[in-house]
TrEMBL record:
The keyword Repressor does not apply. Coiled coil: none annotated. It comes from Massilia jejuensis. This is Lipid A hydroxylase LpxO. Residues 69-222 form the Aspartyl/asparaginy/proline hydroxylase domain.
Length: 299
């Protein structure tokens, strides 16, 4: 039985790794967060009602039409947040989902995050917040800023229960500012939306001289069966809500993000150890992985 579970897990990781044309190095994929979620994502992909392609036509998500129609209203509220300096990086290392994005200047302001509470969004962006609340399939949303020169490295998102929607608000309207999903490139334009599958390898860069502001949403992945949609919603309520991060005091911080704050603090010592002796660091990491695998097998 144990070997069957291990075998299924490994096959699920291979499914994630070989999905698409662009792949991470296999050693990295083995320990990537998307591999930990591989068994769940295998079933998400298996029962998905959308095609297995990097991009999906926006027209397939008719419920997003009010966002597209009101993009100028949404942009006005985003620009007001910029003037107030509210679109920013996490101040207390309590954003488990997007912490690595902050390194080159990426910033965000949460408008909605699954079942988490963000009173700041309703107060500072009432019209955008109301629009998003009126669309049940929009599970998460934020304003996301990518300044000139910023880059997000190639990665997969860990949870396949959603699709990603980007709506251009204040963009460079320049092909040097783009996102690439499984080797296919899209350049943002004001008032234009795009839907893609974030479980393919994707990365982004702003090589222009202007800032880029978009509305960034997670849209519930359409499933073939109601029971699978119910499972997907339950996973979102439990796992994804736990990763919520605040804009400011009074917003909800999920358990995963609280634990990440502690992990980030401990990581400072890990990085010092790695800088002191890279070989010893690699051997220690390998030993811990082997010990963990042995413990799991023993159970």
């Amino acid at each position: 039985m144990k070997w069957a579970v291990v075998g299924f897990y490994f096959l699920a990781v291979l499914h994630i790794h070989f999905r698409g044309k662009v792949r991470l190095p296999f050693a990295r994929q083995l320990f990537d967060h998307s591999s930990f979620m591989a068994p769940i994502n295998f079933f998400m992909h298996l029962f998905s009602r959308v095609p297995s392609t990097p991009y999906i036509p926006v027209r397939e998500f008719a419920e997003l039409a009010p966002l597209q129609a009101n993009w100028q209203l949404i942009r006005a509220e985003a620009e007001n947040l910029i003037a107030l300096n509210k679109i920013k990086a996490a101040e207390q290392n309590d954003d488990a989902g997007f912490n690595s994005f902050f390194k080159t200047g990426w910033k965000r302001f949460y408008l909605k995050w699954y079942d988490a509470s963000h009173p700041s969004a309703a107060r500072l962006c009432p019209r955008t917040h109301a629009l998003l609340q009126s669309i049940p399939t929009v599970k998460a949303a934020m304003f996301a800023e990518l300044p000139p020169g910023a880059k997000l490295n190639p990665h997969r998102d860990p949870f396949a229960g959603s699709m990603r929607y980007h709506l251009g608000l204040a963009t460079p309207n320049d092909d040097r500012c783009f996102i690439e999903v499984d080797g296919e490139r899209h350049s943002w334009r004001d008032g234009q939306g795009v839907v893609f599958d974030e479980t393919y390898i994707h990365w982004a860069v702003n090589g222009s001289d202007s800032d880029r502001i978009i509305l960034f949403c997670d849209i519930e992945r359409p499933m073939r069966y109601r029971w699978m949609s119910a499972i997907n919603r339950w996973l979102g309520r439990t796992m994804m809500t736990a990763a919520s991060s605040p804009n400011e005091t009074g917003d909800q911080t999920g358990l995963v993000s609280k634990l990440f704050r502690i992990s980030h603090f401990m990581g400072q010592y890990r990085r010092r150890y790695k800088a002191w002796n890279g070989t010893a660091y690699k051997l220690t990491k390998l030993a811990l992985i082997v010990a963990l695998a042995g413990f799991i097998y023993w159970l």
